[in-house]
## 1
Amino acid sequence: MAKPYDPKDFYYRKAKKAGLRARSAFKIDELLKRHRLLGKGHAVLDLGAAPGGFLQILAEAVGETGVAVGVDLEPIRNLGKAWVRTGIVDLLAPDALERIRALHPGRFHLVTSDMAPKTIGIKITDEQRSLELVRMALGVASETLERGGAFVAKVFMGGEFPALKKEIGERFESVHVARPQATRESSYEVYVVGKGFRRGAGPS
Ligand SMILES: C[S@@+](CC[C@H](N)C(=O)[O-])C[C@H]1O[C@@H](n2cnc3c(N)ncnc32)[C@H](O)[C@@H]1O
């Protein structure tokens, strides 16, 4: 069956040309710039990081004085940068936080999640699986972010979205919803950005 989108579209070709591993690199680049989320020397955690498009951009943003940690169910090919650490972690497994702490025991300034379930094409099921991953990511962010830190997560828009936005709002001073330009037109994904993490706020 033909795909409802061109898999080798403008952003795919642009990413290839720039040596980026995934077109999603442009999404995080836009969000970092628009919301001023990271600087040199910061520590950042990327959940669902394979093949490494986000991580390439995040690693550049923190530079060699920072730390960029990427984890995924799948292995992430070495980025060749000493300040980047990667690991195979299932965010739905009970030892996920422990494994992340083994890669970087300190706190993070930013936690990003581009995690997505394997979609089956049934909207409600795909949405629910996406929400489960976002809630796990929010849980990890709540345990590992420094005060004032930020959170970015991909969410499939659905009926539970307002409740999720409220949950994020309980932990962050401000919440924004963004649809970066590189998002495929046919996609119903958005990114939720929480800024100003309030340590100790909300259920953890
Ligand atoms: C859209 S891809 C991420 C692309 C990545 N941000 C990039 O720029 O290269 C979604 C990723 O979420 C990962 N994922 C899905 N469920 C996960 C889970 N339970 N734990 C960890 N990663 C998961 C998938 O393996 C997949 O690599």
## 2
Amino acid sequence: MRKYLLPVLLISSLCAAEPPPAPPTYVCQRAAAPLTIDGRGDESTWQQAMRLSPLRDIEGPAIADETVVRMLWDDEYLYVLADMKESHLWATLRERDSVIYHDPDFEVFIDADGDGRDYQEIEINALNTVWDLFLTAPYRTANQALHDWNIPGLKSAVHLRGTLNNPEDTDEGWSVEFAIPWSSITGHSAQPRRCSPPAAGTTLRMNFSRVNWRVQADATSPCGYSKLTAEDGSPLPESNHVWAPTGVINIHCPEFWGYVRLSERPAGSGFESMPVPAPDNAQRRLFAYYNAQLAHRAEHGHFSSTLNTSGVTPLFTSQQYFAATSTASDGTKLTLDSSSHLTITPPDEKRTPLYLWVQGGKHVGDTAWWQQHFAKLAEAGIYAVIIGGNTEQLAHLTPIAHAQGLQVYAWLWALNRPGDTTALQHPDWYAVNRHGLSCHAPEDRPFVEYYQFLCPNNAEALSHLLAQVDALAAIPGLTGIQLDYLRMPDVILPRGLWRKYGLDMSQELPEYDYCYCERCRNAFRRAYGRDVAEAADEDADWREFRLQSVAHVANALCERIRSHNLRAACAVFPTPQIASRLVRQDWQQFRLDLALPMLYHSFYNEPSEWATARAADAAEQTQQRIPLAPGIHLPDSTAESLPAELERLRNTSPAGIGLFCDDDITPAMLERLRQWQN
Ligand SMILES: [Zn+2]
């Protein structure tokens, strides 16, 4: 019954106590070759297509779900492939446009222009029976679903790994493949036939859902199974696993769906990510207001002129209202009227989200101090804070920052783990240099006492790091986790630091060259069939092996972060080429949602213009696959120099700009930031 409740009855399920977290995003790459729609997805271009982040419970929590969804596109179709593990395959519905979710199903939702109206839904069961329907608006607004609408040219196929409707055996699962013609997607948006095929760069709002029922073997049932029932005889509720949770058991809240951007790059040409579009938060505020008005009208018969949602300004006429808001981060203006018509007006000049690192270990427990601190940062136009500190400090500070409208990233040191009491109990977890000395022993550490690097090929050490991600991800309100020190010790220091350490590092020195532990040497031998060359610093394979080892750790951590529906960010050296040479960090291989290149020019004895040039290099070397937020080291700047530095970086069209760190930000700088953002 979940979809057929009258709007009035749905009101109670309109407003989740907690809005769901930021929506997932996905960059859909082009199919590199034609696809046969057979439900198998065994073409190599499907194997190379990126996975969407895992499905979650529709109300938000992470769940054990092994559905793997991938997408591709070409000029004719949008392709979807879903692979689902399932030990009991069953289906009963054979007639097109039956209510398919009464069987276990897989569902696709597409709102082509993202205005929360005029969207399509496709459901399919294991018999390849399709229900396609078109909704002029969500059910909450009015029941305007066109159930008998059929998508001309839709191709679908199902592949079963097991036997259908046979409770005697255990099945493996099923997969579904769709080719959805663009003419049906873009042709029925608010601007008909606007773009068929769409242009690369087009962004759609989408969601996916998998419905399952609890069943028992039942010889009297034609399909061999019957649904488990409650005491009153009604079936136990179905499970709803979705890509973008809506916070309530109602998927028809398009304002919470994920974002899918079409890329011109073919599958297999490298990981791509996109930021959550800047107006997303403002849009949610408007729909929260809209839902509250619907609830009020259901109870009192009319809209309320006194209803308050922070940041939303309503304007009333006798029958309807217009609610307006704008985004703090870039000045986009949005309006939503009582018929749920959403209008988004981009700003005249685009603002750039500012990411500020915050040292969370000070003023511990002093809520008032932090409230004031975050309020000042928000007022100066800071978009996100990257907060360092232990888990308790982060759990304390995250809601305080959030209440000031700041996005929050947890700052996690990855391969360098100073004072990690668990790691220190395992001497074999630590990286070893060419002389055989380990980062475990205080007297053997390179450069500084806090260089306590772990080996990138130690599975136990990696599990330990993944557990750190899990612990941070349990803090409510985070947008993402920012990884730091995802690299080896500096085999070559930035030139500006040579004098400080009394070193000439024009070539790789053995005492700063890691990881030569037994495990790494053995793994190299297995991979290349030989030992590391005597002249190790000239061994290109050995260099490549260690770049891959660090990238492997990075990607395991990024995938784990995304599995929590969080964004994976990383502070990296200036460009992938510089990072590979200096610290074995080939970060163009990292599957990041945001890279923050540390363009700290004084470390390199360079002027601030050098930073701008390296920001452009980084964008070119990563082929603009990864959103970049190039970082400024605030001690290198003054309040007077900052606006020009920001402006030069902004001209490289980054996704944001990083600032390190809050301890170095002066009141004069905050004032300059505020002026620059306005
Ligand atoms: Zn090692």
